Amino acid sequence: MFRDLGKTCGVAKLSEIQHVISCCLPYNAVILNGCLKYLLVLVNFLRFYFELTGTLLKIKSSNEKSMDKLLHAVLLVFLYVVTLLKMQLLNIWFPSLGRVDVDHVITRKMQLIAEAEQLKPVFMKEVDSHFTEFVNSLVAKSAFLDSSSSASLFPASCSEKELHKAKSLRAPPEHGKIFTARRSLLDELFEVSHIRTIYHMFIALLIVFILSTLLVDFIDEGRLVLGFDLLVFVFGKFPVVFCTWLCMFCATVIIPYGLFSYWAQGYCSSSHRVIRSLFYGTLFTLFQTVGLGFGPTYIALSYALPPASRFIVILEQVRLVMKAHSFVRENVPRVLSSVKEKSSSVPIPRISQYLYFLFAPTLIYRDNYPRNPMVRWGYVATKFAQVLGSLFYAYYIFVRLCIPQFRNSSQETFNLRGLVLCIFNSILPGVLILFLVFFAFLHCWLNAFAEMLRFADRMFYKDWWNSTSYANYYRTWNVVVHDWLYYYAYRDFLWFFGKKFRAAAMLSVFSVSAAVHEYVLSICFGFFYPVLFCLFMCFGMVFNFILNDRRKGPIWNVIMWTSLFLGQGVIICLYSQEWYARQYCPLENPTFLDYLKPRSWSCHIQM
């Protein structure tokens, strides 16, 4: 019926009527042409609306809930456009009426404008939420069907080698992470001018920091001081850092791959498979704990590397440990499965696949990843330039907001008022550092390497800023690390102990994450002050259960941001106080306990 209506009231019919009236009544031609123009737009839109609705109704049975919401969104589109057309028709003056009530027309037009403005946010919200939900459900179903039915794509006449290759392209037996080609969220958001303006505001703030520093130095020194002594200090002893990284990387390439290859090649024919597995497993564990675990830490401490240089060594140490574990964890089940199926070939990845994984911005091993067709070197240069800009941004934050505040803090008597003021004064630099770490590393650095390697899955983070719960924040802040913890810590814990111990599995994951974070900070700063560990295990665990996924209102997002701001203030304040306390109150012969006791609690007494 709707298609017949569109044909009878189509473009040709209305065009003929418009032409006849224009010839017969030239005095009113302009007016009638305007009316018919908007009537033509309305009829065409009605025809498009009815055709779209009919098409959606045909596929409604496949996804009932999502399609109902999408039909509702289409109806809102129709109402919104009709309201705009009503507004346009009121702009046409009809001389045949003799006289126009201007006040009435203006009043009615303002009413319609108000109606359209009220309808616009509802329409945008409905379309965004329902259409996103609909598309996500389709993508999830497509990925699930692709991973579950890929075996059926190969006929029974395929050779065993081809079948084994097909299995290697699928997700692992426990349905692990599925990589798909997708862009990073900020790259999509920066295409919107409103979001891009926020990025420009941060650049303007950096310019203000630079001008402030230059003007203060000019007033104090009588000249422009362009020294970057702080950056030179924190990134000192770079040759030691590079040699340490090169040794770590070469060891990670040779030892895990060699141990796995020797174990896999002789496992099928071995008569003592358990002993063989224990032997090679022990060697791999020793390499992880002693080679990658103890060696870089010893070098960082014995060579007294500055903080940023230590961060490079320790973070690379943690990254390579996680990469090596993922490689072994993903490939050992494949070997066991091939032995169980009595396959003639042993599934050992090529060394080139392992090398690609070591550089790829992911901690989950796969033989193959989705790849982009080409490298955009301009994009790579832009991302590295943004990393460099973020580094200078952090420098000016410390120079203007942190160092003047904490330089003389150890000379003041410790009291509650001073601590509270210190925490609240540290919120601004703490939040800015949080944003810079996220933008520089999780967005720019990872995207730069992904682009150089043509790595197509760029979901390194999600919209963590919209989180209404800490559970969602932990899942979306750093997707790269979260995936590793979820598949190799949480799910393996449940596989080993059973699904009844979900709370224990969550607690174990929190404990491991908190311990690793505190280990990194302790080695890099040169002292043990478990502020971050306490925030993780105490407040983080409590908020994880209080601010859970059932909290969806905007107020919970406000609470999440408030607690996040306060936490950043506590971290910056307490760690900065401890750093300067150990500079001003050094111990001649410190014992092991002196490294564990906070110096900032007693430094003012010695002064």
TrEMBL record:
It holds the Pfam family MBOAT. It catalyses: cholesterol + hexadecanoyl-CoA = cholesteryl hexadecanoate + CoA; (9Z,12Z)-octadecadienoyl-CoA + cholesterol = cholesteryl (9Z,12Z)-octadecadienoate + CoA; octadecanoyl-CoA + cholesterol = cholesteryl octadecanoate + CoA; (11Z)-octadecenoyl-CoA + cholesterol = cholesteryl (11Z)-octadecenoate + CoA. Keywords: Acyltransferase, Disulfide bond, Endoplasmic reticulum, Membrane, Phosphoprotein, Transferase, Transmembrane, Transmembrane helix. Its main location: endoplasmic reticulum. GO terms for cellular component: endoplasmic reticulum membrane. It is a multi-pass membrane protein. It is found in: Endoplasmic reticulum membrane. InterPro entries: MBOAT_fam (IPR004299), Oat_ACAT_DAG_ARE (IPR014371). GO terms for biological process: cholesterol efflux; cholesterol metabolic process. One of its GO terms (molecular function) is cholesterol O-acyltransferase activity. The chain crosses the membrane at residues 30-50, 70-94, 198-218, 230-258, 278-301, 377-398, 419-450, 501-521, 527-546, 558-577. It comes from the Eukaryota. PANTHER family: STEROL O-ACYLTRANSFERASE (PTHR10408), STEROL O-ACYLTRANSFERASE 1 (PTHR10408:SF6). Belongs to the membrane-bound acyltransferase family. Sterol o-acyltransferase subfamily. This is O-acyltransferase. It comes from Cairina moschata.
